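If you are new to this repository, start here. Below is one unmodified record pulled from the training split, so you can see the exact layout before writing a loader.
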Amino acid sequence: GSGMAAEGDVELELETEPNGSGGGSDGAGGGAAEKPRKHDSGAADLERVTDYAEEKEIQSSNLETAMSVIGDRRSREQKAKQEREKELAKVTIKKEDLELIMTEMEISRAAAERSLREHMGNVVEALITLTN
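And here is the target side for that same chain:
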């Protein structure tokens, strides 16, 4: 007979459980029903914020790219100029040609030398360019 008593206890527990949890879930259910609406609007706002942030990031990265492109171009031009200066420095010029240009054109030694070098030491061409 004791086995029957135990079974009875189990049955009792089963009966009481649905009622107890049923009352609890009802209250929770009411709360849950209201929640999704609030949550959705929050998510939508969040999405808008992240979209905005992403757009700003894209804009700033475009700017950075543009700046680095400009920087590259500048350094390339700088390099080209340096190469040109080196080439010009190799040109042999005569001191008398230099002095001739300085007197003729009444320009500084540096300017005279520069124009003479640019014309590969050809004093006539340098003078022609300077007079034009």
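Two things worth knowing about this chain: The first helix runs from residue 2 to 90. Helices lie at 2-90, 95-105, 109-118, 123-131.
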